[in-house]
Amino acid sequence: xxxxxxxxxxxxxxxxxxxxxxxxxxxxxxxFVDDRIRPGIADWYEQGSxxxxxxxxxxxxxxxxxxxxxxxxxxxxxxxxxxxACMELEAGGSGLRSLVSVQGSLAMFAIWKHGSEExxxxxxxxxxxxxxxxxxxxxxxxxxxxxxxxxxxxxRDGDDWVLNGSKMWITNGSVADVAVVWAQTExxxxxxxxxxxTPGFSAPEIKRKVSLRASVTSELVLDDxxxxxxxxxxxxxxxxxxxxxLNEARFGIVxxxxxxxxxxxxxxxRYSREREIFDKPLAAxxxxxxxLADMSLELGKGMLLALQIARLKDEGRIAPEQVSxxxxxxxxEAIAIARESRTILxxxxxxxxxPIMRHANNLESVLTYEGTSEVHQLVIGRALTGExxxx
Length: 391
Ligand code: TGC
Ligand code: FAD
Fold this sequence. Notes:
By secondary structure, the protein is of the alpha+beta class. It folds into 3 domains: 120 residues, Butyryl-Coa Dehydrogenase, subunit A, domain 1; 98 residues, Butyryl-CoA Dehydrogenase, subunit A, domain 2 (Beta Barrel), CATH 2.40.110.10; 146 residues, Butyryl-CoA Dehydrogenase, subunit A, domain 3. Helices cover 53% and strands 13% of the residues. The protein contains 11 helices and 9 strands. Strands 2-3-7-6 form a 4-stranded antiparallel β-sheet, covered by helices on one side. Strands 1-4-5 form a 3-stranded mixed β-sheet. Strand 2 and strand 3 form a beta hairpin. Helix 7 packs antiparallel against helix 8. The longest helix has 35 residues. The structure holds 3-thiaglutaryl-CoA and flavin-adenine dinucleotide. 3-thiaglutaryl-CoA binds next to helix 5, helix 7 and helix 11. Belongs to the acyl-CoA dehydrogenase family. Pfam families: Acyl-CoA_dh_1 (PF00441), Acyl-CoA_dh_M (PF02770), Acyl-CoA_dh_N (PF02771).
């Protein structure tokens, strides 16, 4: 007997936990992704290109750039709305969510939280509108998980600062107008607002990626980059500066990864109902249903976790290790869902005709950036035991 099919998240009734305003924002972002991203994403992925300059003003008009920040042209939405928007963006592609995360949660947040009033006035309204693109340079070739070891140096020369060093794997680097660069000074790590047309700054693009192909990833080279005294972010010194920004971006990924997973699972369900194997739909076999049931469980549990983390964030009482719980679980489960969904499509699953393999490959980057799974396990381990086991 066949009955009406429900969506995986419909089964969990998670919409009941979301306010009307947040749902309306989510639905608007979903429509944008359907109209503007889905038609082109497979080609962009295949070509290894992403029209960041073209998309940024459209994302600005959509209101998602720095959407959870207050003032300076930002929308000032709830954290929940921001998370839900990330989910819809990543259902289109992790590269799209990355663009929005790096712009809003890393580059804009760094200036919004730690910048001077002049820095905020100069950059935030244009960045919220997508007229200026930002990037965030923390990782270096030899220091990813351990940014405390960074070699990029900022030295005083009179009133000026002079920066030397390099950053690696920087999203939006080659297309950015402004880079927030973290550098070691005589005493502490400080953040610098670097216009990318400053002499000595260059950002060669990293090619031959097989993950996040529809996303710009770059090296940043700082060769005697001279900046005025006002370029430093005045409100923070020490590693807590960049790490505070990572909390924001990691929060978006807690939801974002579920968007990619949902897209894979919905594709697998649709395909299994259409594909006839041994004279009946693939969906009518118990083995298929076991896979679909298990994947739906993980998607729904991930969503409940994400909504709880968003609730804590909206109430202003979220701790970094709680964000780690969500990032670790939801990215890990999203990859598992992508791989299992692919099996349901058989050979058809390996092409760009379907989004699954693209999502699966992208999620490998998502597992690594914004803190690897191992880093998040260690953050949670420290919270549980009181022992820091990073070193
Ligand atoms: P540790 O001694 O633990 O802390 C140093 C200082 O930072 C403070 N802190 C935090 N502050 C805010 N938020 C957090 N999550 C924080 N974690 C630590 C801490 O209180 C301390 O402050 P203070 O005032 O006492 O100095 O630092 P550690 O050197 O032992 O490192 C800890 C560790 C390993 C967890 C940290 O280094 C880490 O998270 N590593 C991973 C690096 C990472 O995630 N990089 C991401 C780069 S950006 C990116 O990937 C963008 S991808 C594009 C996209 O998002 O789409
Ligand atoms: P490593 O730190 O060398 O880690 C290698 C392995 O060792 C990992 O499995 C790791 O978990 C493990 N490991 C590390 N420490 C421990 C330990 N204590 N115990 C056990 N295992 C450990 N960075 C930015 O600053 N800005 C960006 O915009 C940005 N965008 C990115 C975009 C993409 C597509 C990618 C792939 C990366 C991006 N990154 C960015 C960099 C990203 O944050 C780093 O790749 C990440 O932090 C891991 O650093 P790493 O690659 O050097 O790996």
